[in-house]
Design goal:
heterodimer; A: alpha+beta; Ubiquitin-like (UB roll); DNA polymerase, domain 1; 2 domains; B: alpha+beta; Enolase-like, domain 1; five-stranded antiparallel β-sheet; four-stranded antiparallel β-sheet; about 20% strand
Chain lengths: ~200, ~325
C-alpha cells in the first residue's frame, strides 16, 4: 500500500468499517425471540431486527443498503456510504452537527431512522458543490472565516442553506435565533452570522 | 439501542392492531423523543410502528376553530397563518421550542406524548420510579433545580417538557383519540395525569390508542394570547418556567382568562387560582399582580428549585401585562 496516498479521512473510514460490521451482531437472542413472537400475531408486515433492504437517495444517487431498522440516517451516511462530511456530535439532537436536508428541509440525522426516509431526497454537505464550484454558502463560510476547528461546519452550512429557503433570516437577531440549532464549541458565531447574512444579501 | 422490528402502517386500523398484539410495541412519528430515549436504553420497544404515512397531517379550519392533524409538523403549525393570527400563543410556543431542525421532524401528537427531560429518568443507572417503578426518586434529594414545584408526589417530581402543551392548555384544546372503542375526545387539561403513586403513567391513553388530531376552539381570549418562556439560554433550551396567558378584555374588564404554566409540574399546569383572580376584574396592574401571586399558591420547592416560585410570580405578572396591553 502506498502510505503516502492514505489520507486521514480514508484511514478513519477504513478503521471504522470493521467495528461497525461487528456492531451489527449486537442484540440479545432473548430480545430477538420476543420481537419475532410479537410479529407473528401482527397484521402488519414487519422487518428486522436483522438487516433489511433500505434504499437511500443521497445527493441525487440511489444507494441500496442492507441495514437494521435501528440504524440512524447519520450512521448510514457515515459508516455505510462513507459520506463522513455529516458529523456526529452529541448523537442526541442537541448540537446540530449532523444536520442534513430531507426533501429540502433541515433535520437532525442522528434522530432519524434511515428506514424512515426511503424515497426522500437527502442532501448532505457532499451534495452542495457543483463539481469544483462551491455552493455560495460554502464560499461565504470561507470568505468570512466562519469556523475554527470545522467540526460543526457542515451542519452549520446545511442549516444556513435551509434557513435562506425558509426566508426567516431578516436581520442579525433572526439569523442567530434560526441558527440556534447548531452549536459551535469554538464560538465562531459572529463570523457564521456574517457568512449567512452575506448570502442573504444583508450588510453586516 | 436495542434491536427491534419495524413496520410501516398504511392505515390507522392496522397500526392499532399491531400495537394491540404486542404490549412492547410503540408508535413512531418524528422520532425525536423515542429514538433519543432508545439510545439511552430508557425505551426498549420490540416493534416500532411507523405512522408517518397515515393521513393525519392536515391543518384545517372548521366551523368552530382549527383542527390540527396529529402528524402535522411543529414547524408547519407554527407557520400556518390561521394559527399565527387566531392562536398567537401556540405559534409563539412552537417557535420557542427545540430547534428549527427538530421542529421539522417532531409532530403535534408526539409533542404531547414526549417524556420528561429529568436527568435521573434519562440515566438508567439512577433510581427513578417513572422508568423503574419502586426504585425511588433520586431527584427529591438530588439535583432538582429543574424539577417541579407543584403537582409532584413522593414518587416523582419531574417536569413536563412541552411548550406547546402549555399553550394549548390556555386555548382549551381538545385531543381527538382513536381507540379500541372508536373515536373519543379528551380535553387537554384531562389528557396528562399527575404522577401520584403511578408515575409511569403519564396520560389517559391506553396502549394502542392513537391521537388523530388536536382541536383548537376559536375564542377572543385565544386571539389575545401570549407565550413567555424563561430559560437558561435564549434559544434551543427547555423552560425553567413558562407562562401561556390568554385574556379577553372588554370595557376595561376581564371577560375570560386562561393562565397555564410550564416547567413547574409533571404535567402542563393550569393556574386556576390565577384565572379566578382575573375574571370579572378590571384589567389593571393591581389585578395582574394579585393573579400572579395566586398562581404560586400551593407551590413548594425542594431546595435548588425554590427560585421557580418567585419566577412564576414575576413571569405571570409580565405575561398578563403583555396580553393586558399595559406594558
Amino acid at each position: 500500500m502506498d502510505v503516502g496516498k492514505v489520507t486521514r479521512r480514508r484511514f478513519l473510514v477504513r478503521a471504522a468499517l470493521p467495528t461497525i460490521a461487528a456492531g451489527v451482531g449486537i442484540g440479545s437472542p432473548r430480545l430477538c425471540a420476543l420481537a419475532q413472537a410479537a410479529a407473528s400475531v401482527s397484521v402488519l408486515p414487519a422487518s428486522g431486527p436483522g438487516p433489511m433492504p433500505v434504499t437511500l437517495n443521497v445527493n441525487g444517487r440511489a444507494h441500496e443498503l442492507r441495514i437494521e431498522p435501528r440504524v440512524t440516517l447519520l450512521d448510514a451516511l457515515r459508516e455505510r456510504l462513507a459520506l463522513t462530511g455529516t458529523k456526529k456530535g452529541c448523537d442526541q439532537g442537541t448540537c446540530g452537527a449532523c444536520t442534513v436536508l430531507v426533501d429540502g428541509r433541515r433535520v437532525n440525522a442522528c434522530l432519524t431512522l434511515a428506514v424512515m426516509v426511503q424515497r426522500k431526497a437527502i442532501t448532505t454537505i457532499e451534495g452542495l458543490a457543483d463539481g469544483d464550484q462551491l455552493h455560495p454558502m460554502q464560499a461565504a463560510f470561507l470568505a468570512h472565516d466562519g469556523f475554527q476547528c470545522g467540526y460543526c461546519t457542515p451542519g452549520q452550512i446545511l442549516s444556513a442553506v435551509a434557513l435562506l429557503a425558509e426566508k426567516r433570516a431578516t436581520d442579525e437577531a433572526s439569523v442567530r435565533e434560526w441558527m440556534s440549532g447548531n452549536i459551535c464549541r469554538c464560538g465562531a458565531y459572529p463570523n457564521i452570522v456574517a457568512a449567512v447574512r452575506s448570502v442573504a444579501g444583508q450588510p453586516s | 439501542m436495542n434491536a427491534f422490528r419495524y413496520a410501516q402502517a398504511r392505515d390507522a386500523a392496522s397500526a392499532m392492531a399491531a400495537l394491540a398484539a404486542d404490549p412492547r410495541a410503540r408508535y413512531i412519528a418524528g422520532g425525536t423523543n423515542v429514538v433519543d430515549l432508545m439510545k439511552e436504553g430508557v425505551e426498549r420497544p420490540s416493534l416500532l410502528v411507523d405512522i408517518t404515512q397515515l393521513p393525519l397531517r392536515g391543518i384545517d379550519r372548521t366551523a368552530t376553530g382549527v383542527r390540527v392533524g396529529a402528524l402535522a409538523l411543529m414547524s408547519d403549525v407554527a407557520d400556518h397563518p390561521a394559527i399565527a393570527r387566531d392562536y398567537p400563543v401556540v405559534a409563539q410556543a412552537l417557535l420557542a421550542s427545540a430547534s428549527p431542525q427538530l421542529r421539522n421532524m417532531a409532530t403535534i401528537g408526539g409533542n404531547l406524548m414526549q417524556r420528561t427531560r429529568c436527568a435521573y429518568f434519562r440515566d438508567v443507572s439512577q433510581h427513578c420510579n417513572k422508568r423503574a417503578p419502586g426504585t425511588g426518586c433520586a431527584a427529591i434529594s438530588g439535583v432538582n433545580r429543574r424539577h417541579a414545584v407543584v403537582g409532584g408526589s413522593e414518587q416523582c417530581i419531574c417536569t413536563h417538557a412541552s411548550d406547546l402543551a402549555v399553550a394549548l392548555l390556555s386555548v382549551d384544546a381538545i385531543v381527538h383519540v382513536r381507540g379500541r372503542a372508536g373515536e373519543r375526545t379528551v380535553p387537554l387539561e384531562r389528557f396528562h395525569v399527575l404522577p401520584g403513586s403511578t408515575p409511569q403513567r403519564e396520560t389517559v391513553l391506553e396502549h394502542g390508542d392513537l391521537i388523530t388530531a388536536v382541536e383548537l376552539p376559536a375564542s377572543a381570549a385565544a386571539r389575545n394570547s401570549y407565550y413567555l418562556k424563561v430559560r437558561d439560554r435564549a434559544s434551543y433550551e427547555f423552560a425553567l418556567v413558562s407562562v401561556a396567558a390568554a385574556l379577553n378584555v372588554a370595557g376595561g374588564r376581564i371577560r375570560a382568562a386562561r393562565v397555564a404554566l410550564g416547567g413547574v409540574a409533571p404535567t402542563p399546569w393550569r393556574a386556576h387560582a390565577a384565572e379566578a383572580a382575573l375574571l370579572g376584574r378590571p384589567a389593571t396592574g393591581g389585578t395582574f399582580a394579585a393573579a400572579a401571586e395566586a398562581a404560586t399558591r400551593g407551590m413548594k420547592g425542594y431546595g435548588q428549585n425554590d427560585f421557580k416560585i418567585v419566577l412564576v410570580r414575576r413571569a405571570v405578572n409580565r405575561a398578563l401585562q403583555h396580553v393586558g396591553a399595559i406594558a
